[in-house]
Design a protein that fits this description.
The complex is a heterodimer of chains A (about 475) and B (about 375). Chain A has an eight-stranded parallel sheet. Chain A has three domains: about 260 residues, Glycosidases (TIM Barrel); about 120 residues, Rossmann fold, CATH 3.40.50; about 80 residues, Golgi alpha-mannosidase II (Immunoglobulin-like), CATH 2.60.40. Chain A is about 25% helix and about 25% strand. Chain B is built from twelve helices and 14 strands. Chain B has an eight-stranded mixed sheet with strand order 4-3-2-7-10-13-1-14. A two-stranded antiparallel ribbon of chain B has the order 5-6. The longest helix of chain B has 15 residues. Chain B is globular and about 50 Å long. The two termini of chain B are about 35 Å apart. The chains are: A alpha/beta (about 475), B alpha/beta (about 375).
Amino acid sequence: MKSALWHAISLPHYNESMLFALMLALAAPADWVPARWTWTDPATLDLLQGTPVNCLLLKWNSEQAQAISTFSERAAERRIATLAIIEPKGDPADSARQAIRAKMTGIVLEGDFPEGTAGRVRDALADSKAVVIELTSRSRLKLGGPAPILATNQGVWAGIQVMDDGHAKAGPSGTPWIDTNTGFVRAVKAWGDTPLWIGNLPPPKAVVTGERYLQVICDAAMVGARWIVALDDDFARRLKDKDPATLKQWQRMGRHLQYYEDHKEWRAMRPAGKFALVQDVSDGALLSGGILDMIAVKHTPVRPVPRQKLNIAAFKDVSLAVNVNGESLTPEEKEVLRAFTRSGGTLLTGPPGWKAQNSTNADQITLEKQEMERLDTIWKEVNSMIGRRNLGARLFNVSTMLSDLMSSPDGKQVVVQLVNYADYSVESIAVHVLGDFKHARLYTPEDGERALEVYKNEEGTGVDIDKVSVCATLRLD
Amino acid sequence: MTRREWLACTAAAGILKAAPAAPTAPVSIAKCNSYDGDLAATLSTMYDQLGGLDRIVRNKTVTIKLNLTGSPGLRLQGKPLGVTHYTHPKLVFAMARVLNKAGARRIRFVESAWASGGPLEEYMLDAGWNARALLNLVPGVEMENTNNLGKGKKYSRFKVPGGGYLYPAYDLNHAFEDTDVFMSMAKLKNHETCGVTLSLKNCFGNSPASIYGDDAKVDEPNESPTSGRGAVFHAGKRGPAKSAPQELDPTTSRHAGYRVPRIVADLVAARPVDITLIDGIESVRGGEGPWIKGISVVQPGVLIAGTNPVTTDAVATAVMGYDPQAQKGTKPFVTCDNTLLLAEGHGIGTTDLKRIEVVGVPIAQALYRFEA
């Protein structure tokens, strides 16, 4: 198939059919594993060997079009997609056309463009079938829309918050507070299966340890999203210079990325457990540090339910629910909750003022102090309601970790994803899962997989895990 | 100042030559640099040096108060709790074996789990302990969270003999009454409020937060406590639940350095300690847990055992490089009264090192200066 685009491109090495064939050989966008790339030297593509990274995001610069073109061509030979990052300045459609002429695979519109820009860019590239991705603020994500990939550059750098004196900050839950994107990702995933990318540049003037890179990757991946790998300047320089220690860290990052790509079946699983949280975007569902993250710190499995998707089916097997904003429901939605309580479910409805203020502010990623303080009250109520109840799984000795419980559609298999945010391994973790399971296997990126002993307990099935470095996955059948 | 307090404070200073002679008991010290050795053998030797455990525990129920202070989620530099501020689990396992071998019929581990009314087993799991293995280690092992009623139906009231410094009696979990032998299994470390945390201060945790906690109800216990005892015990801003005996004199100092040492001495007088063990293999100095700024890890490499908490703590304080009879204003009792002296004032045991027989390793050889 020929397009007008290909006529406009100069092809120093390939004829257009060969190039098109290379493009076809690329992975589908849903399988892209993204990384920001600051280099246009084709030799840097060697760094990707042994990693699953197959999609590079390069800042578009028309003055380097030739270098980018050569780079993109070489990348395509290796089945690596190249996406041009275009920012809100100038004519994005014109820049997009130039980038595609430079043999790039697609476009990333990074930032908050005027409404309708993405559509205009897609129209401008209609003949090329180039993918256009909006890498935007959380509040502008088009949830439930037709986008091939949802993407935000407002990821938080996941990890344990450390105060100026070096102590870990403790949250209202009393354990070390973990900055995480998991609550946000789960809130987005509740809208559908569109692949989600989340990223942010490394914190400026901060040393990002190798462990921290792994933590942000795993933080997103354990709940089914992909972190857009982005390296700090110092790391990038050492990597390009092929510093042995840096290469080792980079390979470790590759192994962790590969780990989740090797288990795509986990992404198809559904949030499990008997606890549902009804929350809307306007209630702060897309902010980190909110009620979902607080519940996550307690390792209580929770199924986020967007208000707009409130129906009887969403409460299947649910025994406990929190409706964050009791004032926002339509009569039909209220009836769903009434039906839930009539069937024996317990419902906690937030009083006026529960919902996060300013949650539609495009610049806001996390809750502000005032909101955190108000959330403390909410948290105490939720915590009191949950108590020691096993709502799917209970985990022990996991104060530096977050977890996610998912189940197969038939409920015969459950998976507990674990990510450790401390810079040291955690030993002696106990997992108590509701239900009768016969077999358990532990998967890790660095030590492969192995069977674990299961034992019966009052809550169902118990499993002990001897050690988790950065991440692990427990599968129970 | 009461007569008893005056006696406690003057005896050590030599002002009162005819101070009543509190009882003495030998203390055993062993050098031990690791939790990986044969701890049971070391412990057996130590208690044999003290006359043997058989005579104390055979066919008896032994209740062991552990030191699992603070949330298990709070860790110093991410280290396992046992090498910083908790009693180490390997030492606990070893002690259970030794007690079993000595003929103990039932071994009940207790602790008032921080901000929790749940089972102690789950608290241990959160601390990274293999609670199942401990329960199955030897016959008769039990666990009880003494932060509330626990498995009991009512609280047990323990009167302080002769009246207390601050309270006349304390209401505690039944486990402290339903036992033949009570053991304090502590950690060798400093304490921000009391200077040192040893076998005496460990017993501060005997008190249930359901009654003495900040969120205790006014008239009755709160069986789901979620806080510490700061308002009731440390600051005296409010009283315990009225179901329990109230403070003797609410006009006394509200300073924690005055109150907490007295409460500890009261608690130990009310519920006497029969066996002690202080874990000084690895620990922290500068405070009792990671919530205290400036603490650091230490490896004193010692175990200290006894049958009297005051003599044991006197020796342990000396091993830490302090004078066990030091007065308020002197390290480690810079801003507090000396708990050991107050306990001595209750007649529990002597703090006079000259009257305490040390067996095993001499203090000089075990010395590990916490202020170094």
